[in-house]
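Interim report to the steering committee. The following record documents the input for Membrane protein YhhN (217 residues).
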Amino acid sequence: MSGLVLALSVAAGLSYMAGWDWEISHKALLAWKGAGVGLLAVYAAMRARGPDGWLLAAVMACGALGDVLLDVGTTVGALAFLAGHLLAIVLYLRNRRRRLTLSQGLLAIVLVPATVTIAYLLPDDRAGPPLGALYALGLALMAACAWISRFPRLRTGLGALLFVVSDLLIFAREGPLHGQAWLGFGVWGLYYVGQLLIVLGVTQALTIRSPAATTRS
């Protein structure tokens, strides 16, 4: 059953962009938008076997809530996403990698100031609300913590980085990329694929049995 939920999430998440050109009601399109990551939250909950699994489900639920609340206002939507980033930080720090190479540690360290600086410089309006800087900091810390976690970097780590790029494109929409027709596709595509990779990486790692359990089986 969880596999079906995952498949429905992928179908909803990837097809949502096609709905932009369809003559459907705004409420239906908003439900379509929330379904992609909302079903990822359901999938994570179905796979949860402990606190970390439920944390992942809560992270995805915040993402789905943010997707919908952005229709109400940017601030309330950003707060929902920020709550998800904070929960993700807790999840990743609970699962820190025991050993890091120098390059891995440096990337995590550089990622935070680089993301916040770029997010500040991209919009034409330098006097934006403080929430923008706070959000960028939470986003950057989430990605850095994902990178140093024990979860697969080619899934969870890469997914978190795609999330960062997606949000930086949103900041760029208020600056050098304003009016670019492709921007919406880039923002949503990178965001959804990023969330999908995060879920797949975390659930994969959480369901792998320990060597001790394998020995006893």
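The radius of gyration is 18 Å. The committee is asked to note this result when reviewing the revised timeline.
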